[in-house]
User: Fold this.
Amino acid sequence: MRVLAALSGGVDSAVAAARAIEAGHDVVGVHMALSRNRDEFRSGSRGCCSIEDSNDARRAADKLGIPYYVWDLSDEFHDTVVQDFLDEYAAGRTPNPCVRCNEHIKFDTLLERATALGFDAVCTGHYARIELRNDGVRELHRAADPAKDQSYVLAVMGPAKLARSMFPLGTAPSKSHVRAEAAARGLGVSDKPDSYDICFVADGDTKGFLQRSLGERPGAIVDESGELVGEHQGAYAYTVGQRRGLGIGRPAADGAPRYVTGVDTARNVVTVGPETLLSVTTLTGEDVVWLAPDVPASAPVRCEAQVRAHGAPVPGTVVRADARVTVELDEPLRGVAAGQSLVVYDGSRVLGQATVGSRRV
Amino acid sequence: MATHYLDHAATTPMLESARMAYVEELARVGNPSALHKSGRLARSVVEDARERMAGALCAHSTEVIWTSGGTEADNLALKGLYWARRQADPRRTRIVTTAIEHHAGLDPAHWLEAEHGATAVVLPVDADGLVDLDALRSEVAANFDHIALISVMWANNEVGAIQPIREIVNIATEHDIPVHADAVQAVGHVPVDFRSSGLATMAVSAHKFGGPVGVGALVARRDLAITPLTHGGGQERKVRSGTLNAAGFHAASVAAAEAMATLEPEAQRLGALQRQLIDRIRHAVPDARLSGPEPGPARLPGNVHFIFPGCAAEAMMFVLDSHGVEASNGSACSAGVAQASHVLIAMGRSERDAASTMRFSLGHTTTQDDIDALVAVLPEAVERARKVAGTFDSAVFG
Assistant:
């Protein structure tokens, strides 16, 4: 197959490309330039946005003996990921920009462009497994290494795009194994630090980034009875389930810690309350992407639901109806915010994905 | 798969004679500034090279200041002339240049504006990329006492437009304003006669005419004061300190001499291939539009530059590259991202057109076979690039 390998400049994408080459594919490397104003050198734990990162990607391609190009997707990235991030927070929701990037950039713009250029598939360094069944259904599964599993942020891509994607690291037993493989292959990025921060938030300070971008909007923090307990500089910067950084002087009457239980950006009010108010037993998701055509879930199906990239899955029952999914949880889940990605699993297999639209207690 | 190299304006293969001269001189020891026999021999190589280079450019040997390349020569001319002229008369703070200069000419002017009190006056160009002489006349008439220098490239690297250097010099000479020309793309390809040009300074780069990368020269009139950029051993009229690169200068001068000796027949040969390629591209892609002047005296004989409407140039480059046809889209920055060309924008093209351009530049190794190979893969490249343009949802192709 003709394969386009996305090379971020990190160790994972380099090893993934190496494995694709070894599997006999005709591989070309592409680095996506996603930032409009790129720094010369990498800083902190951001992993793909500096010129140094694109040079690392170039050196990996040199080492692998494949052609290498840089594609400027910074406008697309800004419009579909950064702007969405700001819009969602401004609307009092909690977006996952990595999910949006996979949805709009890697497995949309990049994949479409690759297809237009005659490529059969895009290969990335994500940790997830694709299994092709005898009946032609492609299943998306958690990676062999649960600590690195990224199926949560990939579930959004849908079956058609899955058929044109390759994740050669899904079977890797661990990150240290991948690093050792990179070193053995002579890839200079083998000891490059992991990236984990939001790539476009320069210093890892999301609240500061939101305040600079959206402006300060002072308002009230109230408790569940509506009593004023503090002030904030913009309701958008708060997330349901958040406990730290509330800046409330007075303790609660019962002395128990307080959490954000509601964010109303229209009224610019943040509501706080005890942990018990955070618990939900029903999750509703919109914009459904269903990856399991053989499990339509038109009637309730047993599953596990996950609402954060590294959150623990919670058992429950899922049903799809009216372009929505509803999950009845066996046990309550704490701190679910609108805008989060809800991924439904059957064991290691991803059944589908949706965006949390409403929560019911 | 054969490689068809059509990016000679970026760099052209070394001429055989220059390569042999280079390798031979690399074996010689001796700092040209040393006083012993090896030093004297090395120095004689440098001075022979200087005379040969001066001869090729119709300059006096004392007018050749060796540099590390065209960029350094442009920087030396703009900064060195600006500082010296302003020191002689503090009113001279205006640097008059054009919107289509190479960044090596444009960026020093903007830097002097940001850091050293200069005012960069950027003259507009017409739709073919030729400088607006009326705008120059008005600027000179209004501000001649305040102009430190005028800097205009002899020939443009992207669209091949040859600028009216003679007229520009005539306008400047009335008021004794020095004119610098970036002649990096012109030397070896069109007749360049420094003495009769009336220019004050002229930047030259060896690897654009078959010499080695890393060697260039600023040809500068003897009566000019130029403030140095580098200080040290005082080489090159005390304007450009640093150990003299005897082998590089030697190879550069050999290349220049050969390029000048073969200039006319080579320009005719390339001009014929250029016309043929332009005709065949117009035939194969009827809506493709040539940028810059029609072939002839106002266009470099090796330059072919087209806008392919609706095509993503990076995709065209990609398809051509995968077929071994090497050409260029826009000017790439250090990280490899193609940027919208300031030259095309200055010529009045849209951002969208600027993102749909390809430059094919022909040179001394170009053959009919290279042209045929390009024309053969062009339809596929255009078709793919149009599909790819549909995947953009940015403002450019939206």
